Amino acid sequence: MRCQLGQEVGYSIRFEDVTSSKTRIKFLTDGLLLREALVDPLLSRYSVVMVDEAHERSLSSDILLGLLKKVRKRRSELRIIISSATLDAENFLQFFSDDPGETSNGEEKRETGRIVSLEGRMHPVDIHYLIEPTSDYVERAVQTIFDIHTKEPAGDILLFLTGREEIETAIDLIESQLPDLPPKSQTLQPLPLYAGLPTEKQVYVFEPAAENTRKVVISTNIAEASITMDGIVYVIDSGYVKLRAYNPTTGIETLTAVPVSKASATQRAGRAGRTKPGKCYRLYTESAHESLDEATVPEIQRSNLAPVILQLKDLGIDNIARFPYITSPPSQLVVRALELLYSLSALDDYARLTKPLGTRMAELPLTPELGKALLQASLFDCLSEMLSIAAMLTLQGNVWITHDGSKKLQEGARRKFAAEEGDHITLLNVYQAFVTKGKKEAKWCRDNYLNFKELSRAVSTRNQLRKHLERFGIDVSESLSGSDVRRAGGADKAEKIQRCLTTGFFAHAARMMADGSFKTVDGGTTLWAHPSSLLFNRKADWVIFNEVIETGNKAFIRDITKIEKDWLTEYAPEYYNVKK
Fold first, then answer.
1. Of the candidates 55, 328, 484, 503, which lies 20 to 30 Å from 306 by C-alpha distance?
2. Domain limit, last residue, from 297, 314, 338
3. Which ranges carry the Helicase C-terminal domain (predicted)?
């Protein structure tokens, strides 16, 4: 529309709003539209809502579609467009059709909607499979890249891997083999693409390759449907994707690499035929492809539902069992979420939102655990500090960067900020040092191996969270002195923060074993400190942690802080009982 961004066309994402009173077309995430519904349940500002990529069946988009179905009963003029490349359109149309028996007074049933098919131009894509399975798909992928590069005509390559660590490994492998290419031959330019990558690095994947260079984009499933890059002719599919999986028994949500579905494999292959005929190399056998699931399990059937139930309750939907879900969540996930919210004091004995705590937790754009810790912070006299920690924990990208390939120097830089209590207070030390020294000069960040862009984002996120608290009527007078917590407030302040974190993260508790691993409280799950954590190879007794990531056959915990065992029963008596 050739207007300035934020005028007639704008966007809104978590912690960033680029819109104005003139905005007519607004791009926003499904999660953010749900948040807007908390304030305006009928979404009265909008006359058309378009939900894109609905086939991905994310938790937020499924709940949003259920909400739109309810809104439509009150606002018949609201236009809803659901779009996707591989959509099971009949199911969605059926979902929005008026429920039987809903027309009274013998009125004619109005047409719910219609299916419109837009034929895209797809060039043919040749599919190649491995004859024998591979034991290491990252190595095999790099080998395939060099095979394509030396034997196939011009065209860029897109490789699908599961996450940042694999992507970085692949790039290292490619760069180590570049000198072996014949002199004067075309070179390769490997480019990473994943959600936490700084925006300025993401844009490289869309730019045409330099002269005499073949671009190799190495991406997570973000490139499966969400974005399109010109010039891709060859796709290499590892056959895996990282999905969230929540175990209602242990209460732990993991990110685990699992085989893709047939629908995803088809989407990936299609990326090779956008501009001309292409080739897709699947790093698995044809028989393995036949055994894949038809479609990915919707997020609502494998996620921690606590945040969603909290939002539904805040929307006034008390009977969550009768909410119109496209696919109903399993009962044990719902029960577990209700238990967790009850033990966090967000729900009362009748499963109603508590006031003010429950409603405030629902309105904060944070996980229920982090929201609870932040809202309890004034009781522990560490609100300033918890605001900074919460902002640091919401960052998508990495706070630490490596440059000049100097791991040793980076480790030394990290030690400057290290707090013996663990990662949360270390992140706080980083934030406070950045605000006092690094905000004005990017060089300070570079010298300390810190990500200037991410830390600047943490500052604006903290301001947004602060505004939320002020809106709740919470006194947010700042009381920070000095850049290091221990020096500023001594061990006393550090302990207050540890206790405060325990009020939110008590369900994520573990005890260290003699071999350096951790065991969950019920003793059922073995966890390891993530190499990025300060408590990697360090001694601790009891800890709480922010998240679990599964890599290979090990579960790693990240963002870890030491606590005392007694705090668990003190702050979560409904959750933990001590056997006498």
1. 55
2. 297
3. 141-316
Whether the Cβ atoms of residue 535 and residue 546 lie closer than 8 Å to each other: no
In this structure, what are the phi and psi dihedrals at residue 572, rounded to the nearest 5 degrees?
Answer: -140, 60
pLDDT in the model for residue 332? 93
User: Last residue of a domain, which of 265, 297, 329?
Assistant: 297
CB-based burial label for 232 (10 Å; 0-12, 13-18, 19+): buried
Residues 287 and 323 in one domain: no
Q: Which long-range contacts (CB under 8 A, 24 or more apart) does 536-543 make?
A: 539/512, 540/422, 540/512, 541/511, 541/512, 541/565, 542/509, 542/510, 542/511, 542/512, 542/568, 543/422, 543/509, 543/510, 543/511, 543/512, 543/518
Six token digits for residue 124: 């043919």
- Residues 37 and 154 both lie in one domain: no
CATH number at residue 223: 3.40.50.300
Assigned token pair, 383: 């609100």
CA dist., res. 40 & res. 33, Å (int): 10
Cα gap 378→386, rounded to integer Å: 9
Per-residue confidence (pLDDT) for residue 228, from 0 to 100:
80
Q: SS3 string of 316-338?
A: CCCCHHHCCCCCCCCHHHHHHHH
For 88, phi and psi rounded to 5 degrees? -85, 80
The answer on pLDDT for 491 being more than 70 is no
